[in-house]
């Protein structure tokens, strides 16, 4: 059976490794990317580069987006020479990024009007997992569309979850990132307060990690605050964006999330301190300075 041609936009660390995984498993790719080195790597493996999202849509059976923001997704869909202008009936779009659920649902409705399907499928784990097809994938959308794209999702992910109607994947990812980034901010500030109080950071970690507060995120925070190793590959800028999206989502629900507002304020303070490109546990430096 002929494999579908996949159009891939967003060849960053995660997307580039996902594209390589697809190519290593016999899929033909059509690509667009600002990173010319990454584009060259995919074309060296047989991918075809095109100039516009419209041209990519015209040549693809499945379109995969692995980009940074809802604004970027909307520009790719609706812009001049965008995906919507070139998409064929029967094509499916998968948004692997972290987007605002309301935007996702609007795009899905507009694609459906053209006979195309959509799945939101934000990701968990790291670029290294992407290369080996071991991602966690939080997929959502109608079952017919999901079943059509499930073979490629299963190729890219070790754990693939179907979470319900379109948008539920992005809802779940935003909740997940709210919890994770709040944990990192809380633990990083705990280390800074301990330092101010004269408590050894390693001892604090030993005590807290022996109890129910222990978590992988606590380990990442300890790696930076105690050992000086910044090994959680998620930037303060991305964390701030995701918490902002979480707050927009709950605002649309008519509720308020004060804890998320606190996390957002801390991340904004880090941005103001020109720490945007640092990994999230590096916010410890901000808290440490504030505690002096």
Keywords:
292 residues, three-stranded mixed β-sheet, alpha/beta, 55% helix, six-stranded parallel β-sheet, elongated
Mean pLDDT: 96
Largest sheet: 6 strands, parallel
Give unreliable regions as ranges. none
Order of strands in the sheet with most strands: 3-2-1-4-5-6
Strand content: 5-15%
Q: Number of helical segments?
A: 14
SSE layout and pairing:
Blueprint: E1 6-9, H1 13-24, E2 29-32, H2 36-44, E3 48-49, H3 53-59, E4 62-65, H4 70-78, H5 83-86, E5 92-95, H6 101-112, E6 117-120, E7 123-124, H7 127-131, E8 135-139, H8 143-156, E9 157-162, H9 168-197, H10 201-209, H11 216-225, H12 236-252, H13 258-272, H14 283-290
Parallel strand pairs: 1-2, 1-4, 2-3, 4-5, 5-6, 8-9
Antiparallel strand pairs: 7-8
Helix pairs in contact: 9-11, 9-12, 9-13, 9-14, 10-11, 12-13
What does the model show?
- This protein has 292 residues and is α/β, with parallel strands linked by helices.
- The strands form 2 sheets. It has a 6-stranded parallel β-sheet with strand order 3-2-1-4-5-6, with helices on both faces. A 3-stranded mixed β-sheet has the order 7-8-9.
- α9 crosses α11 and α10 runs antiparallel to α11.
- The protein is elongated.
- The mean pLDDT is 96.
């Amino acid at each position: 059976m002929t494999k579908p041609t996949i159009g891939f936009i967003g060849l960053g660390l995660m997307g580039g490794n996902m594209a390589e995984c697809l190519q290593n498993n016999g899929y033909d790719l059509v690509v667009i990317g600002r990173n010319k080195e990454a584009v060259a790597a995919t074309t060296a493996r047989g991918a075809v580069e095109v100039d516009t999202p419209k041209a990519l849509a015209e040549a693809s059976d499945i379109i995969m987006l692995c980009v940074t923001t809802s604004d970027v997704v909307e520009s790719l869909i609706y812009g001049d020479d965008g995906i919507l202008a070139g998409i064929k009936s029967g094509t499916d779009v998968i948004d692997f990024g972290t987007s605002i659920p309301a935007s996702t649902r609007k795009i899905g409705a507009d694609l459906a009007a053209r006979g195309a399907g959509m799945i939101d499928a934000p990701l968990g784990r790291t670029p290294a997992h992407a290369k080996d097809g071991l991602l966690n994938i939080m997929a959502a959308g109608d079952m017919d569309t999901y079943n059509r794209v499930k073979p490629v999702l299963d190729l890219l992910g070790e754990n693939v979850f179907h979470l319900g109607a379109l948008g539920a994947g992005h809802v779940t990812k935003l909740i997940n990132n709210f919890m994770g980034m709040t944990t990192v901010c809380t633990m990083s500030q705990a280390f800074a307060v301990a330092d101010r109080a004269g408590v050894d950071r390693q001892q604090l970690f030993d005590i807290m990690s022996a109890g129910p507060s222990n978590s992988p995120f606590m380990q990442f925070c300890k790696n930076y605050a105690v050992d000086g190793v910044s090994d959680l590959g998620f930037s303060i800028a991305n964390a701030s964006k995701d918490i902002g999206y979480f707050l927009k989502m709950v605002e649309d629900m008519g509720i308020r999330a004060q804890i998320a507002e606190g996390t957002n304020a801390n991340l904004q303070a880090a941005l103001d301190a020109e720490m945007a490109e640092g990994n999230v546990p590096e916010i410890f430096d901000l808290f440490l300075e504030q505690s002096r």
